[in-house]
Amino acid sequence: MGKEKTEFNMTCPLPIDRYPNVLLAHGAGGVLMNDLIEKIFLAAFDAQGDGERHDGAVFSVDRGKLAFSTDSYVVSPIEFPGGTIGTLAVNGTVNDLAMCGAKPLFLSAGMILEEGLPMETLWRVVRSMKEAADAAGVRVVTGDTKVVDRGKGDGIYINTSGVGVVAAGREIAPRRVRPGDAVLLSGDIGRHGMAIMAVREGLEFESPIESDCAPLASLVGSLLGTGADVHCMRDLTRGGLASALVEIADTSDTTIRIDESAVPVPGEVRGACEMLGLDPFYVANEGRMIVFVPAKDAGIALRAMHACRSGAGSVRIGTVCEKESRRVLVKNALGTERVVDMISGEQLPRIC
Amino acid sequence: MKHIDEYRDGNRAKRFAAAIRSITTRPWTIMEICGGQTHSIVRFGIDELLPDEITLVHGPGCPVCVTPIELIDQALVIAARKDVIFCSFGDMLRVPGSTDDLQRVRADGGDVRLVYSPMDALRLARENPGREVVFFAVGFETTAPANAMSVFRAKQEGITNYSILVSHVLVPPAMEAILSSPSNRVQGFLAAGHVCAVMGFEEYIPLAKKYEVPVVVTGFEPLDLLNGIYLVVKQLEEGRCEVENAYSRAVRRRGNEQARDLVTRVFRVVHRKWRGVGEIDRSGLGLRDEYESFDAARKFDVDDLTAEESIECVSGLILQGLKKPDQCDAFGGTCTPEHPLGATMVSAEGACSAYYRYRRERKRTGDG
Q: Which of A165, B109, B288, B323 has its C-alpha lying 20 to 30 A from B212's C-alpha?
């Protein structure tokens, strides 16, 4: 079948004059769907150019344990400063695998497209997925496309699943977190959530806030390469830093103490949060993680993280303590402590 | 960050706290009016820096919390209508009415939108001439000017598909209600800085005189609050009861006169019911007759709707400073942000929500 290799290029390979928008027929299994798969998806993801089409992908892996993760992405707007839903879909699953200590290898991509979606937009999203996959060193090896009626989707929904290999003998999990562990954070917080909110709500800032969306696999690779005894890692996503800390404190049956002044929050994120009555600790991130290592290993861990672009702003933000009646305590500039807990539902902007 | 960090400086806060300690000789009970102040106090642990003699009680200044339950019910009825785009500030969405909240109405197909300003709602009305756009106009004097502006503009532009569901309340009558209650224990007030930025502080002078209480106009950052508390304690210790302005970077004696004029032009003073507290004479704002056609309660014929409040919820006592959230049996048990009994648990400025968010203890597990 279609052996002719399609060049990967910047312009949308489906002729716009014929199909400027996604049609229901693009998901119907016929000629149009074949066109879409070949000219968009294979063009982007079939690096080998073998064009082999099968019901699934078969591949060999190194010795070790397999890590497997899945996530669905429904962000609106589809494109935002610093990324697209495609970048999120690749980086999100790559990061989940990396947090298990795995080297991410292969991804699947399930796309649910809304009838009428501009083909150009789809191409930009697919291209951003390809770029993110290349940057993270993973391959998208299998996929699926469905088209839903106009009005029944939000442009594009993407599900990605991924597998990665965990080196033998490595164990990275919340249950390994111990009192005395240092808590490290890989950079500033809150940029993704505020970038999305700014676009969605039409908020303007002097300098636009860019999402922090980034793959963490190479950062994790260099961190693990130092030989530091990494007990646990967690990427910060929807619930922000606060929710990640609370989850870890809960699972590891400890109390985590954080020094608020050590947590980097970009000025524009802080400003926007102050204005809207939001707490940056709960704002979403897509390229940040927290790391738990024994205090003695904090120095080498931080040095390794600083050497990577996505970890250049890494800092120590706190310490794990013996279990107390409160899970996560944050010391503020005044020297008093407040509880940080899971948020109920979404953060809503206040009245005045 | 400029204009924030300098008001959160730890060393200066300690010096303020020490100054307060050095002048305090007796127990004093001080009320902060505004829910924004309550949240700052609890979040930054300001009360923990104070000497034991000083008790801070949290006041009624949370607009979401005092909006009466029947008004929420009216909002729910209007928001569920197919022809309506219902616009609200974010923190009203979770406030429980008799049976539902706006989030549930939205899930059931109501077109409920979160906006940042009534002017956004007015823009929606302009863009959707075939639909009715209703803005939930809650708030104290702080939000009144913008709400007045939206109606004023709508009238000027001849926009007829815009209306507001008004639940405006006023601070001074609430203070008077607290002070004249036989169970009152408040001896001094931190007046709400942002209300005063609009209204000025002349209204408080007769109150301070009549009830012999110091009133200090206070901001929202930790050092603002400590400074306000210091000035109230100083007055109390010296036997003075004056109105002082400790938030001069935002507040002038007569406030923002343009904003006040607009408010008076569009609204008139009316009796209002406060959730958990009851009706207070001349304590709210309603639309003047010439703006009657912008009154959503009349337009959609819901102004007769009445409702009873939960008897389990003690938010009325909390809003009057008679109880603290953690003294309520339901707190954190049958009343949580997910299943609130009253608005104080879900509002961004509610006292119960502040205690739940910043002070709650870990749930006890079975094996203890």
A: B323
Residue A169 — left, alpha, or beta (φ > 0 → left; ψ -120 to 50 → alpha)?
left
User: Which residues on chain A are in Cβ contact (under 8 Å) with B90?
Assistant: 348-351
Domain residue limits, chain B? 65-170+255-299
Superfamily of domain B65-170+255-299 in the CATH hierarchy = HypD, alpha/beta domain 2 (3.40.50.11740)
Interchain contact B240–A (C-beta under 8 A): no
Alpha carbon distances (Å) from A83 to A86, A90, A196: 8, 11, 10
Q: In this structure, which CATH number among 3.90.650.10, 3.20.20.70, 3.90.1170.50, 3.60.110.10 belongs to the domain A174-339?
A: 3.90.650.10
Give the Cα separation of B242 and B237 in Å (integer): 13
CB contact under 8 A, B361 and A326: yes
Q: Which of A194, A200, A206, A348 to mutate to test the interface with B (most CBs of B within 10 A)?
A: A348
Question: How much is the ipTM here?
Answer: 0.81
For chain A, the domains span 24-53+60-166, 174-339
| Chain A positions in Cβ-Cβ contact with residue B167 (cut-off 8 Å) | none
Residue B322: CB partners within 8 Å, gap ≥ 6? Answer: B57, B183, B185
d(CA B194, CA B40): 14
Opening angle at CA B347, ends B65 and B80, nearest 5 = 85
Give A-chain residues touching B337 at CB under 8 angstroms. 344-345
Task: pLDDT tens for chain B, 368 residues: list them.
Answer: 777 888 999 999 999 999 999 999 999 999 999 999 999 999 999 999 999 999 999 999 888 889 999 999 999 999 999 999 999 998 888 888 998 899 999 999 999 999 989 999 999 999 999 999 999 999 999 999 999 999 999 999 999 999 999 999 999 999 999 999 999 999 999 999 999 999 999 999 999 999 999 999 999 999 999 999 999 999 999 999 999 999 999 999 999 999 999 999 999 999 999 988 889 999 999 999 999 999 999 999 998 888 888 788 898 889 888 899 999 999 988 898 888 888 898 887 899 999 998 888 765 433 33
Beta bridge mates, B132: B84
Asked if B336's CB is within 8 angstroms of A350's CB, the reply is no
In CATH, what number does A24-53+60-166 get? 3.30.1330.10
**Which A residues 259-288 touch B at CB under 8 Å?**
267, 270-271, 274, 276-277
Nearest CA to A40 out of A116, A114, A109, A119 is that of A119
B28-34 sheet: strands from edge to edge? B54-61, B28-34, B188-192, B215-218, B243-245
Q: Which of A259, A334, A340, A344 to mutate to test the interface with B (most CBs of B within 10 A)?
A: A334
